[in-house]
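Hey, can you fold this one?
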Amino acid sequence: MKVCVFTLGCKVNEVESASFMSALKSWGAEVTDRLCPADIYVLNTCAVTREAEKKSRQLIARVRRYNENAKIFVCGCAAEKDAPAFSAKGVQYVGGAQKKNAVIAALAEELGREYACFNNEQGYEILPEPVQPRTRAFIKIEDGCNNFCSYCVIPYLRGRVRSRAVEEIVCEAENCGCPEVVLTGINASAYNYDGKGLAELVSALSHIDKRVRFGSLECNVIDEKFLSACKSLKDFAPQFHLSLQSGSDAVLKRMNRHYTRAQYLEKCKLIYNFFPDAAITTDIIAGFPEETEEDFEMSLSIIEEARLARVHAFAFSPREGTVAFRMKDVPHEIKEERLHRLLAAGERAAEKYISARTGTVHRVIFEDMEDGFTSGYTGSYIKVYADGDFTGKTLDVRIEKLYKDGALGVPVE
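Sure. Predicted structure:
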């Protein structure tokens, strides 16, 4: 029995799909995460944008081209948002974004196996330990979000925040077999289990001999207590993906983001006080409803003012069911023009950050071969290419110059 588990969307989706794969492998199934001929397809969908939702629906036709008689199991945010659209396509099973154990139970029934589902007292779903890659393990620490940003549909689909027990996270980090762990969640900054927040979780990881990195963080979690805990780790990756979305206070207010431009800059300053070489990366939305040229210019200027190392830029995508859906949209051509300018500013920021580190030595965890070079990442998430095969090795590397989407480096003794 061959099963394809295919994932669209965020790292949390990828972790959950890896748990599906773990269960399937334990039952003797041949499992892959690449689209190919298979007997069963498990499609973990995304609804963060209209385009992601469209791609999720199109997956059904894509997999049927491989095997028109295959049994198809669908779950994830797009399936949660519009289950009838998937049911109408004649699939075997339609689940949602929250009850992923139910997906595994349905697969167990299909394969003639038994599976017991468990939740902790907060309602956090305990899934099988995921199949992890060789170098970087993504560890899910919480699910759900309580923020209700005016543009985002995810809290309606994922539900409220539920956190995972500290000891479970520590145990997975200790035993994952990877030199780096990434703590991730739908809103990891909201982590709180039995009165223990993110700082306490970090402190509980202080003994592990692995690089520890975070996924996306919110401003509210950045304080001296949290940063001190990060500094106490044996190998902390000083890359902070600090979500921004706009550099304009007026736009931030319409977005229902609970900080100002000045507060964001203060958090960046605090990070640099603890980690002078930190890479602060972010997300910025171009063309949010009613965004003026002046608003947009403030998003451009904060890139340099905050000394950002990389920018992920997106054009605003209206999502039905959100507050922003009812706001006056910016014309498409203006969104695209602003997005182009944001992307260009982000590229300049990345080049400036990397260029400033020319001649410095960084520890790189090498992962993949690309055209005769091995690529991997520094703690500050600079992608480094080195001539030769260093796959799976962790080496000290001197950065030589800008190269492709990162830097060319030379291993040092």
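The mean pLDDT is 96. Let me know if you want another pass with a different chain boundary.
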